[in-house]
Amino acid sequence: MKWLRKKKSHIPLTEWNTSIQGGSLLKKVMNQPEQIVKEMLEGMILAHPDRLRGIKESGVLLRTDAPVEGKVGLVSGGGSGHEPAHGGFVGKGMLDAAVAGEVFTSPTPDRILEAIKAVDSGKGVLCIVKNYTGDVLNFEMAVELAAAEGIEVDSVVVNDDVAVEDSTHTTGRRGIAGTLFVHKVAGAKAESGATLPEVKETARKAIGRIRSMGVALTPCTPPEAGKPSFTLEEDEIEIGIGIHGEPGVKRTKLLPASRLVRTLFDRIREDLPFKAGDRVAVMVNGMGSTPLMELNVVHKELMACLREKEMKMVEAWVGEYMTSLDMAGFSLTLFQLDEELEALLAQPADSVTIRRGGN
Amino acid sequence: MKWLRKKKSHIPLTEWNTSIQGGSLLKKVMNQPEQIVKEMLEGMILAHPDRLRGIKESGVLLRTDAPVEGKVGLVSGGGSGHEPAHGGFVGKGMLDAAVAGEVFTSPTPDRILEAIKAVDSGKGVLCIVKNYTGDVLNFEMAVELAAAEGIEVDSVVVNDDVAVEDSTHTTGRRGIAGTLFVHKVAGAKAESGATLPEVKETARKAIGRIRSMGVALTPCTPPEAGKPSFTLEEDEIEIGIGIHGEPGVKRTKLLPASRLVRTLFDRIREDLPFKAGDRVAVMVNGMGSTPLMELNVVHKELMACLREKEMKMVEAWVGEYMTSLDMAGFSLTLFQLDEELEALLAQPADSVTIRRGGN
Amino acid sequence: MNAKDVAGWFQRYADVIEEKKAWLTELDSAVGDGDHGANMARGWKEVRNQLKTFEGGLPEVFLLVSRTLISKVGGASGPLYGTAFLRMSMFLKGKEEIGHDDWPALLKAASEGIGQRGKVNGGEKTMYDVWAVVSETAEKRAGEPVRTSHLLEWAREKAEAIRDLRALKGRAAYLGDRSVGHRDPGAESTVLLFETLHQTVSSRGGNGRER
Amino acid sequence: MNAKDVAGWFQRYADVIEEKKAWLTELDSAVGDGDHGANMARGWKEVRNQLKTFEGGLPEVFLLVSRTLISKVGGASGPLYGTAFLRMSMFLKGKEEIGHDDWPALLKAASEGIGQRGKVNGGEKTMYDVWAVVSETAEKRAGEPVRTSHLLEWAREKAEAIRDLRALKGRAAYLGDRSVGHRDPGAESTVLLFETLHQTVSSRGGNGRER
Ligand SMILES: Nc1ncnc2c1ncn2[C@@H]1O[C@H](COP(=O)(O)OP(=O)(O)O)[C@@H](O)[C@H]1O
Ligand SMILES: Nc1ncnc2c1ncn2[C@@H]1O[C@H](COP(=O)(O)OP(=O)(O)O)[C@@H](O)[C@H]1O
Ligand SMILES: [Mg+2]
Ligand SMILES: [Mg+2]
Ligand SMILES: [Mg+2]
Ligand SMILES: [Mg+2]
């Protein structure tokens, strides 16, 4: 193995993998943990120069052709660590900009403001925000600042996670993977030339019809923290987990896929409730390190649940859309469609992650 | 948590997670491990009924419109556990059929024969085989059987892995992620109405210009074996790993992304060799549980290497294409293009994993 | 306290945050997402940098902190602290010193800002509870001189008291009953703010006005 | 041996494979992908099923095994064993018994089949080495009666001898020098085939022809 030996001796790990607490090594493909978000964004732009450009030092990814004349601009974002969300959904028919914060930390208002300004063509901008206090507060401040600068701007908050109790006295439900369906339908609506209030109304209608819930088999490890966000026993899983490794609603023993899917499905279905005859889009979303093989097994079980309840699946997203770093697990999302939403979902899109031709 | 408690008590794990050796539990989303491939294929078809149909009990996924009149049929496949390969690459402009064997085990000749027959429109069929003894032997037998039935059929063997010494006295180089670039260009060539010898020639030309190499940070665990395919220390990685968890060429300490990428890049570049002025397609392929965030960091480093050597990247695939179950790590692939190959790569495709519009 | 005193306070606080970063993160790991220490440290490190070359009046030093926190911290605590310092800056417009009598109204401005921004009324087990009790108690005592030692004492007591609450806002709320018994990271970083205020005032020695 | 004897041999082999499945897999884990036991067990389980209702002549029982292995085993070993049994079936066309004198040619047919299919000449540290030595030694001794105990002895010795080789074909070849010292899984499953042949012949008691 001459080719390896002839290099000079290895850089000591402590020179780069340093922010590790408790002395344990982080087995990640990275350089300095503090640089990982910046480097990731650079990598994304380098990989997709035809689709994405960035605003320097801001964590903002834009459609190359933003602002698009005569179209409401769509901005989303949040902490990093959920890739491909949200940069993977920037493109024709979806978002105009995604703002990335540090890992699991909302981006700051000034960065969001930059994104809003960059995508505003004069037709106004809608921000699609996941319901986490940090995201909500930072987007809220950005919207205030943008409005102060005379931009027509509004926001919607997605709260699809049925694992969390909803109440006006609390933080309320979290926004998780269902957010990406909102990007799709709001994106298609905006592309049609609709006004800001119209796009907002479509987004709100969609939010009212999207429900999700997830499960974790293993925790994730944020690169800077250097240790798992929580711990699970060898045979334990956490049902109702959030996408930042926030604790879920229930720990239980590992279950077979069929039981696991049914547990999440029942809770999701009863919540809206979904009913016989409903036409739905479904998402089986991998949390980061669950192989596609397993996600397809989950999808098979989910389809059995739908058949039993006489619901009709008209579109399926099976893959990784809103991850939690290297967490193992998945989330299920059901989206109850009406005629408008079904048509919008089928419209063309050309983002890194979601691409579909005209039909 | 009434919704969980009201279910009857949990199925004991031993009733389903049974094939586990040494008593340790497999933390996977699955039912019976023996059923996982079948269930996965069912899930894929259910998720993409517009793109895929299956041949019962055969592990074969087909384009819904196969056989396509006037087009050479393309068949690939191999053991399962590499999802989205190969089913994710079935569709217009890519494969006509993918044959899935058991996890990490080549499919049998009778199944491959079924696929060949199903996609033959009379214009002949090309099999794209990864260079592993099992795959080669089983496809070879299938090709003999198909020829005996009067089908015009041929095969090419992909051997892009520079980690393995190449010699006619040995098994030779393995076929790894670079295989998917072959699917793409051969698929586009076939779609153009080319003859079987022409499609084969294009595939062979591509194979001669594709080089790959991978690295594992963690082993993978096959669902039936129930234990990791190999072991790595906490701070150890394996460079030159195969996609089945076969041992690589060298164990070393964990390296920063920049060093890791440069190590693989140098070996790949020197092998062909690639040179200044080359126009190349690149693939940064995740092995199963390495987050997209890290793959993008890898891509950024790879672009720095290309710039330094004055090579021009014209297309980038960054994501999971040829995985190894839940292994952490990645592979790099470089593809030296000529005018024809670059044009074929840019042609439209409509598979589950690779979609691109006409341009 | 004049602008220079306040700048000293903020410098001292930046040091303490750096020092207690791991502890704050640990508190946040138990009930949130384990970044409160990192978030605060990122912001206050920048504040310290900015203060090195800062030359401005009293409202400006608060404004500088507000802007820096808003643009560097992210998460929930960035906008919340940012709003608090913004409101204090607005209240101090035209003033060159914070006098005894200013404290109740100054704290009220900060506390109301946090309450509005966070949509909290008290009792949700957040940093607001600490700000609110300090502001309200100071107001109730109107007339009596407000000592920083009192502010610190009230803050500490409240932060301790809310440990037994169930969190209703912020990430800790997802834990439901499991949040009971844990300290709230934002409340604790607020206590540290009053602790460094008191230290700053005490170490000035001086006229004893604030003691 | 007639068709019934051979069926008995294969049934016995299927049992042994089931029993040694974990061991074969372990050998394959060390140098390959850890599935040789599972692969073989999958195929031979089906052979046993098929044999239950089988009623045919001597070549047919070999053909049944060939077809079953080819369509059930997958991997490298499926086509290799499948080819071996196919060639043996072809050689036995028209025969009702395997006589003493048939063994050298029968084994040669099998061994050549494997060599052609696997593109090996010997010395690559695969199952072929065992088949080849058995076939060649039997041929060299032409004239002398071939005893199954001899076949087993030659097979065992060869499987042992190739441990010290560096694998050149199959997955083990990727290991390079690291394959030295490890047993080859396919060679070991071949030894078991001759072991059960010998057991079958011995347990027939009978005329001692084969002892
Ligand atoms: N709605 C709210 N109102 C007031 N304070 C809040 C609210 N939500 C969260 N907090 C405070 O913010 C702190 C968490 O800050 P931090 O960890 O930096 O942000 P994040 O929760 O976004 O990760 C909590 O400990 C709490 O004191
Ligand atoms: N080219 C070859 N020629 C002959 N035998 C081979 C060849 N390649 C592999 N083998 C045999 O096959 C065995 C491995 O079989 P198995 O594990 O079932 O298949 P795979 O290697 O596809 O996983 C090896 O131990 C070796 O004896
Ligand atoms: Mg946070
Ligand atoms: Mg195998
Ligand atoms: Mg936090
Ligand atoms: Mg094997």
Automatic annotation (TrEMBL), chains A, B:
GO terms for molecular function: ATP binding; glycerone kinase activity. It holds the Pfam family Dak1. GO terms for biological process: glycerol catabolic process. Keywords: ATP-binding, Kinase, Nucleotide-binding, Transferase. Residues 32-354 form the DhaK domain. One of its GO terms (cellular component) is cytosol. This is Dihydroxyacetone kinase DhaK subunit.
UniProtKB/TrEMBL annotation, chains C, D:
GO terms for molecular function: glycerone kinase activity; phosphoenolpyruvate-glycerone phosphotransferase activity. It is an enzyme of class 2 (transferase). Pathway: Polyol metabolism; glycerol degradation. Residues 4-199 form the DhaL domain. One of its GO terms (cellular component) is cytosol. Its EC number is 2.7.1.121. Keywords: Glycerol metabolism, Kinase, Transferase. It catalyses: dihydroxyacetone + phosphoenolpyruvate = dihydroxyacetone phosphate + pyruvate. PROSITE patterns: DHAL. One of its GO terms (biological process) is glycerol catabolic process. It comes from the Bacteria. Homodimer. The dihydroxyacetone kinase complex is composed of a homodimer of DhaM, a homodimer of DhaK and the subunit DhaL. ADP-binding subunit of the dihydroxyacetone kinase, which is responsible for the phosphoenolpyruvate (PEP)-dependent phosphorylation of dihydroxyacetone. DhaL-ADP is converted to DhaL-ATP via a phosphoryl group transfer from DhaM and transmits it to dihydroxyacetone binds to DhaK. NCBIfam families: dha_L_ycgS. This is phosphoenolpyruvate--glycerone phosphotransferase.
